[in-house]
Amino acid sequence: MITATVRYKLPPNIDYAACREHFHKIAPGFRQVKGLISKHFIWNESSWAGGVYQWETLEDARAFYSGSWLDGIVERYGMHPQIEFYEPTTHAGRWSCSRIRCCGRPAVVLERSALIKLLGTSLLAGIARGLFAAIAAHALGLSMAIAGGVPGTLAAIVVAVVIVRHGPTA
Known about the structure:
Low-confidence stretches: 143-170
Radius of gyration: 19 Å
Order of helices and strands: EHEEHHEEEHHEE
CATH class of the largest domain: Alpha Beta
Number of strands: 8
Mean pLDDT: 72
Strand order of the largest sheet: 2-3-1-4
Strand content: 25-35%
Number of domains: 2
CATH topology of the largest domain: Alpha-Beta Plaits
Structural class: alpha+beta
Number of helices: 5
CATH architecture of the largest domain: 2-Layer Sandwich
Shape: globular
């Protein structure tokens, strides 16, 4: 996995509101980008903006940051973006999504805390968390393993769902 930071200075005619509006408009298009795991759109008061990306491979990242994407950035912002690549070494935080291999296939593991943030802690929400994660993983074409305790008197019960990706092993 590779982390990339992309930054560019916004021209004076693009303020926070315009930048945010543009980011919301283009965000859905990133769902189909080959090798992209996630993107966080960023902005600061010094009028720098861009994104923090998680990629499957450096090759996927480099391929994306060339061609039409780069042309669009230069056209819109009037500069070549500053792009840096990093090798993630450690994860710390309450939200976690890890890519692994399960039964020889790509898989994703979502920690219970991340799903509780999304869906709450009731027993019904516990069931919804499992279904939500299973549907999300299936939509992404991934195997999925998820484990998390159910709250209250059923706290010792662990919910586990595994969906094996159909088709050839990636």
